[in-house]
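Q: What would this chain look like folded?
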Amino acid sequence: MKKTILIACLGLVSLGLQAQSISLAGEWNVELGKSGSTFAKSKRASQGELKRAILPGTIDTNHLGFAPKDTMETTHLTRLYAYKGAARYSRTINIPKDWKKKPVELFLERTRPTWVYVDGELVDSCNFISTPQRYLLPKKVKPGKHFLEIVVDNGRSVPEQVYGSSHAYTEDTQTNWNGIIGRIELQLASSVESKSAETLTGAIPSRSVVSPSALQMPDFAKDFHIKGAHFYANGHRIFLRGKHDAAVWPLTGHVEMSVEGWMKYLGTCKEYGINHVRFHSWCPPEAAFVAADSLGIYLQPELPFWGSFDKKDERLMAFLHQEGENILREYGHHPSFRMMALGNELWGDIDKMKEFVDDFRKIAPDKYYTFGSNYYLGYQGIKEGMDYFTTCRIGGEGWGKYNTHTRGSFSFADAYDGGMINHFHPNSTMKFDEACDKAGIPIISHETGQFQTYPDYREMKKYTGVLHPYNFEVFRRRLAAAGMLSQADDFHKASGLWSVKLYKADIEMDLRTRNMAGFQLLDIQDYPGQGSAFVGILDAFMESKGITTPEEWRQWCSPVVPLLEMKKFCFEDGEKILAKVKVANYGGSSLKGKKLKWHLAAENGLFCMDDGTFSTKDGEVRKNVGDLMAEDEGVLNIFSYDEGLVDMGELNGVFHVQKPTKLLLTLNIEGTEARNSYELWIYPKKALEKKGVIIARDLNQEVVKVLEKGGKVLWMPTASSHFVAADDKALQADNSVLQSDNATPYTVGGLFQTDYWNYRMFKTICENNKKKVSPGTLGILTNPEHPIFKGFPTEMHTNWQWFPVIKESHPLVLDNFAKDYRPIVQVIDNIERNHKLGLVMEWKVGAGKLLVCMSDLEKAAKYPEGKAFYQSVIDYMRSASFNPSAEITVDELKKKLVEKPRQVSLKELNNISQY
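A: My prediction, written as C-alpha cells:
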C-alpha cells in the first residue's frame, strides 16, 4: 500500500488553490456487499447485481436499501431503505489531456470509511468521518479514461462505540447512512502540493492552523476571548444563547451539505434569538461554518463520541485524536469556529482528556476548549485544562439540594423532584449564583429545558423522504385505543403552550445569574430519537409547531432582555408586592439615557395600586395612586453604563381588585426591540366559605346517604383511600429522600412541569437507580370558560397559578370509565401510557351531585391561588351551573375504583451516559 500517495488521511485543509476541478456528481453504478468482504481487497471481485445510484447521495436516498421488518419502532424514526455494510460505487472518469504530468486529487467531501481503486488497483483507504477525504491518484494514471471504484463501508473501520453513540452515526438522528454526500470531485493540484504530498509518510504534520487575522474577523468574532466568568468579542461581553444540534434531517437521513440549506437552518435559529450552536458528538460540514460566519453564530463542534474516554483503548483514542486534528485543520480558519469539546457527557480518564485538549491547543491556539460537554454529568467539576465548562451542575450535591445546579429542570433520576422549577413555588428570583460564583471560568448551562410536549400528528404528512414516522403512528393508535384521539390536537396545544412558559423560566434563571456565560437548549427542535423526545418549540423540520412565534420567543432569548424578579406571581388583595427590575444587557452597547417603560393591563377586570412606586436606584420615583382601572403605565430612566446584568429599579405597591384578576406586566426599552412580559394573579382576600356543600375524604355510607337525598358532595380522596398513594416528600434520617412512586395502579403523582425528555427512558434509569419515577404527565387540559373557573382565571393549559393544586394532586386513572367521558380538568399523559387522567371530575349520583377533586385543596389553600381555586370550586357547586351530564351509581363508581385499570408494560430504554 502506497502511503505516500494518500492525502485523504492527513486532514489537511487543502494543499493550496486548485487550478481546476471536475465534478463527479451524477449517475454511478453501485454494488452492495458485506462488510469485511473481498470488496476491500486489491483486486475487484463481483459480488452482486449492479444498480444505478445518483451521487452525491446515499443508499437510502437512492431507495436501494431494505424495507423495515419492524413497523412498531418507537425509539426513533424508521429508515425505509436501510443498509449497513459495504457498497462499491463505480464509474468511468476522464482525465483531461491538459492535466498531463500534473497531480490529480480525488475529493470526497463527506462519507464513511472508504477504499479507492483506479483501474482495479487499490489506491488506499481512509476512515475520516468529520472532514473530507482526499486521495492523490498514482502518477501512472495518465490522461484518458479510467475506471474509478470507491468502496464505502458503514459497518466497520471506526471504533465500535462510535456507531451507537455519535450523532455522526446514530440511528436516532441522521442515521448510519452509506454513501458519499457533498462535493465529489477530481481536483488538479499544483506541483508544489504534489511535492509536499510525496514527502508525507502518513503522520500528521505538527503545525498550527492558519487562523484568520484580526482584519479578516467579522465583528461578532473579533477579539473573541475569555476574561473571568465571561466571553467577550469586539470589546463587549457576550452571552451565548445556544441550542443543541443532533444532526436531525428527517427528509434525507443525512446532514445538509449546502450553504443554502445551512443558511435556512441557522437563519431560523437566529430568528429565535439563537447565536450559538453546540454540535452534540459530531462536526458539521464546511457549509455550516460558512453560513455561521455570515450570520454571526458561534459554533462548538465536538469529537464524534459519547461514552468512556478510556486511555487503554488505543484504537479509540487514536481515532478520536485524528478526528480532532482533522476538524481543527479543516475548519479552524472560520471565524464562527471559536470553541470545541471532546464529545458528549464523557466519563473515563480525565488526564487523557487534558492531554487531548493540550494537543489541540497547540494546533489551534485561537480556540477555547473544554472536556466533554457535561462530562461525568458535571459531578467532577472544573479541572485544569478546561477553558470553559458546559454542564448541568458544578460538582456533586446532596440529594434534595440544588446548590450546584446550573439549569432549572432535570430528570427525577438526576435531581430530587425533577429540579428547581418543579420543586419550588413559582417565582422569578431563582438563579445559579451559588454554583457559578465559585467557578472562575465561563459556565454554559448544558441541555437546558427538555420539556416534553405531546406530538402533533398533523406533522406526519411532512415525512416524504427516507425516514417514516412509524413512531407517530404507534402513538396515534395508542391514543385512539384509549378513546382520546379527538383530543390529540388539544393535548399538543396545551402541553406545548405550557412548555414555552417553562422554557422562558429556565432561560431567565440563566440570565439572572450574574456569572453565567450562556446556555445550550435541548432544544428549540424536536429530537426524533431516544424514545422520541418531542421537546422542541419547533418540529424536527425546524418549522413552527404553533405554540410560539419568533417575536414572542425573543422576549427572553435576545441580546437585551428586561427581567422582573418577584418571589411569587399570586397575591391577595391588599398584599404588598416587591419586585426588582433588571436588564440582561449583552447587546454590545450601554443603555444609558434610554427609558424602560412598564405597562400593567388587567385581562379580566380592574385594579388599582396604593402608594405604588416604580423607582430607580438613582432615586427617580413615579407614584400611582388612583381609582380602579384596566391598565396603567410608567417609565424608568436608565442611568447605568453597565453591560451584563444591570439593576434598573424596583416595583413596590399594594394591589386592590374587586374579583380574581389576571394582570399582564410588560417591560420594554424605548427605541429597541427589547421587551418582556410577566403574568400576575390577584385574588380578593376573604375566608373560605364552604356552606351548602359536603366536603368528604372518604366515600363512606354517610356520604352516600347525602347523595341519595340529593345533596352536593365534594370528594377529595386521600391516602386513606385504597387508590391514592401516600405522600413521599419527607427526608429520612440520613438526609436521603423516601423513594415511593407517589402512584398506585389507580393514580399517578402530581407533576407541575411537563415530563422531562422521554418517559420510557428515564423510567428505566430511575428504576435501575432506585429513584422515584416521574409522574410522567404533560400538564393539564381544561376549558377556561367552564363556570368552575369563575373565581380562578385560567387558560386551557397549566400556568403558574396552578402550582399548589397540582403539587398536592394524585390524578385518577379513568381508563375503566366510559370512553367518551371527559373530566373538567384533565391531565395529559405521555405517549407511552396514554392513560385518561382526571384532576377534577363530576357525576350525577342518584338524586345527588358529586364532584371529585384529586388534589388536597386544604393543603393547597395555604397559598392565595390554592385558596382561590378551592373557593371557586365550592362556589360552582353551590350554583345552578353545577349540573353534571354524566351519571353513575355509587355501586358503579365503587366498582370502577376497585377494578385495576389497564397496565402498561414498557420495555427498558437505556441512556448511554452513566447514572
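The radius of gyration is 31 Å.
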